[in-house]
Amino acid sequence: MVDLDKKLLLPISDSNDERLWSGYLRKRWTICLFIQTSLLFAARVAMPVCATSISKQFGWSKANLGAVMGSFFWGYLTTQIIGGYMADKIGGDKVLWMSGFTWGSLIFITPYIAYSNADTTHSVILLAITRVLLGISQGVHYPSMMSLLAKKIEDSKRSLPLSIITSAANFGSLVCGGLGSIIMEHYGWEKVFYVVGIMSMSWTYSLWVLSQGQSRNVVAIDKMVFSQSSAVQSSAKIEVPWRKILMNRSIWAMIFAHFCNGNCFYILLSWLPSYFNEQFPEEKGWVYNVVPWVFSIPACVLGGYLSSYLMKCNYGVTNTRKVIEVLSLGGVGIFGILLPYCSDFRMALLCSGLAIALQTFHNSGVLIVPQDVAPKYSGSVFGVMNAVGAIPGFLGVYITGYILSVSGSWKVVFFFMGIVNFCGAAVFSIWGTSERIL
To answer: CA dihedral in degrees (48, 50, 55, 57; nearest 10)?
Structure first.
């Protein structure tokens, strides 16, 4: 009977914890989550990529455009904490595929909603509501994914999968910027939303299949079954120590740094295409929608490598995170301030590319600090951090649109972005930590 049990044993882990993924599942989930996150960002940047065409067609002002793009983050903000909490309770994989079907459908129907009313004010309001709903559905993605990875991959093997998956944000933006510009030029802006929507829903189905297969994995015949439900039962008993989380100075330093990174990231994501379109109208859209983001892929890997190198040199986890984060926030601030002074198109591409590249260092800095300071509650802590980090998504984007409407000055926009970054780097350098708190 012992031999039979050994033959029937279906290992799902290469460690002593049966709830951890095996090497095969870890690679499979890493690829799956990379593609899902890429599509998530493709859906998110479809509006900025098509913004110029849409605003011209419907007669929008920059304030209207800023309101529509920024409205996404009003919804995105609301589901950060609940997304992490639900992922800790029922499993991140379930939350991911449920949200994926929702935001995939919303991005697909966006053009229909845009054409549903000819009045400019009404069309802006309807699209803003759609973007809010898109934000609500996408807001659970990162907290759920962080909770899932914290539970399924042991600490020593988590860095590489995490760096690969988080690089998908820039990869998805790059692909949508490049292919989206080509599709828009030849077939119209509406087709960008249709293609992204269909691909998102199709791939979410693959994620659902993988999740369902994982939930039926058998550990041994004499134990009957080890499924995700057992993990749910144990996680349901977890009570998040919210008071300790919200009263800790180091956690707030981490949150503030993430807020500052969000401010620069969302300004670049939402307004960079408009900046190039205005300053260099004779240049091809696919060039400035792709080239700056190309820098981000090797930079993301470089950030992870530099982080690992510093820790191997016994620099310490906290000091390593601080160095990486200062390079990220400080570097983006410097190149962001320099960008509007570039009169040459190639120099502007280089400057914006370096800013976007250094922004990816954040993935090896503050972004993984929640798993350092509170591994047991990483989903909930990340939810709080990302909720605050989403605020500049609507506030910063809207303020940028307002500044441009009033002054028309890109120098003011990028100077504001740089100062915020310098403040974030200083705060995290002084009060940040990666020592376990909870």
So the answer is: -170
Using DSSP's 3-state secondary structure scheme, residue 340 falls into helix
Name the residue type at position 241.
P
Listed as own residue / partner, the contacts of 209-215 with beta carbons closer than 8 Å and 24 or more positions apart are 210/28, 210/29, 210/32, 210/93, 211/93, 211/94, 211/96, 211/97, 214/12, 214/25, 214/93
The predicted-structure confidence for 165-205, as pLDDT tens digits, reads as follows 887 887 888 888 888 888 988 899 999 999 999 999 999 99
Q: Quick check: 83 and 143 in contact, CB under 8 A?
A: yes
Nearby residues of 117 by Cβ (< 8 Å), 6 or more positions away? 123, 126
Residues with Cβ < 8 Å from 184, sequence gap 6 or more? 49, 50, 53, 191, 192, 285
Q: Which residue's entry shows tokens 């609940």?
A: 82
Q: Which of 136, 129, 102, 98 is nearest to 113 (CA)?
A: 129
